[in-house]
Amino acid sequence: MTQTPPTSSKRRTGDDALDAAIAGLVDSAAGEHTRLGTELLVAAVGLLTDGPHRLDLKIATAALQEMRDAYSTFAPYRGAKKVTVFGSARTQPHDKAYEQAYDVAKALAEMGWMVVTGAGPGIMIAANEGAGLEMSFGVNIRLPFETEVNALLHGDEKLVEMKYFFTRKLMLIKESQGFIALPGGFGTLDETFELLTLQQTGKADPSPIVMLDVPGGTYWSRWHDYVLEELEANGMVNPADRELYTITDNVEVACAAISDFWTNYHSIRYVGDRLVVRMQHEITDEALADINREFGHLVDRGSITRSPPLGPEVDDDDVLALPRLAFAYGNRHYGKLHPLIRAVNQGSVAN
After folding, report:
1. For the packed helices 337-346 and 285-295, what is the interaxial angle rounded to 10 degrees?
2. 351 found inside a domain
3. Is residue 83 part of a domain?
4. What is the pTM of this model?
5. What is the pLDDT of residues 230-257, one digit of tens each?
6. What stretch of H or E contains 269?
7. Percent helix, strand and coil across the chain, each to the nearest 5
8. 226 and 313 both lie in a single domain
């Protein structure tokens, strides 16, 4: 049955004939995603009717095509744990950082983690080699130089090639539940700072970030000094932001930081002013009491309590079987959620 043209401004072009045509397309193609499908098509039509410059259309079209290709590539592996490894394309095989990337990827792959890289040379191929082809993804960027896909991933079905950095970074971050940054140049720092910014501002869900150096190296320790002495000391970042990352030169510590983050913690969701923490297993009353004593300062009112799935979670059928904690989150320094997550992971699990 054909839909009645919607009334929301995001779901109307203002032209009845176009709205009816969009409704027909959505009926045919959008499946269960009627609202979002309508908004997507309305936005596309709006872009065309706004009188854009040709370059604007090229950028929007290429970006959407790249995202579609990437979503399709990752879709069969949606349930797999993934870790993204960042680092310099210029690192040579004799470099200690190359060995670190290989070793940490190999160890994580043996723990069941798939490894995502930028598909290039240097740290990227080192990590892909360590993980092995079966456990590797690549999200390559086409550049005037350093453009080649590394030999391991060339022609593999788990490789995506992109024109734009912003779509590439979206996929390198969106698809993974853990991140390891090894020493690198502007590109590595750009990716690492974007990742930290997304987590610092709550635009990305909490996940473990590891800055992995070579044994005895100073790359990340000197970076950390800069953060403390120039950013934190001048009030540009909060001391709680230190909780967002782990600095180490030890592969075992790096792997533990990634895997331990997900020992019991599953995910979070905001429902109004309430933060819902979903867990794989219920924790004991004693563990919950300890969490309230330690993290009561995060609560705007009331306390941290057990909770059934809240209304929007039920509407979205959002992991309804998992146990939950919920509270009015009154402190939006998102780095402070990491110690809370560690407490959920370390607390006694109820039998």
Report:
1. 160
2. no
3. yes
4. 0.91
5. 999 999 999 999 999 999 999 999 999 9
6. strand 265-271
7. 50, 15, 35
8. no
